[in-house]
Amino acid sequence: MLKPAPVPETLLRVASTFGTPTYVYLENVLIDRISSLKKHLDGLPLQLLYAMKANHAIPLMKRIKQEGLGIDAVSPAELLLAIELGFPVDKILFSANNMTDSEMHFAKQKGAILNVGELSRLEKLGATYPGSDVCVRLNPQIGAGHHKHVITAGTESKFGIPVEQIDQIHSISQKYDLHVRGLHQHIGSGILDTDTLWKAINVMLNASLSFDRLEFINVGGGLGIPYRAGESGIPMDEFASKIVAPLKLFLSNHPSKKLQIWFEPGRFFTAECGVLLATVNTIKETEHITFAGVDSGMNHLVRPAMYGAFHEVVNLSNPDGPLQKYDIVGNICESADFFAKGRMVQQLREGDIVAVLDTGAYGMSMANHYNMRSLPAEVYVPSDSSKPILFRSRSTPESIVKEALSFV
Question: Which one of the listed residues 209, 333, 389, 401 is annotated catalytic?
Answer without folding.
Answer: 333
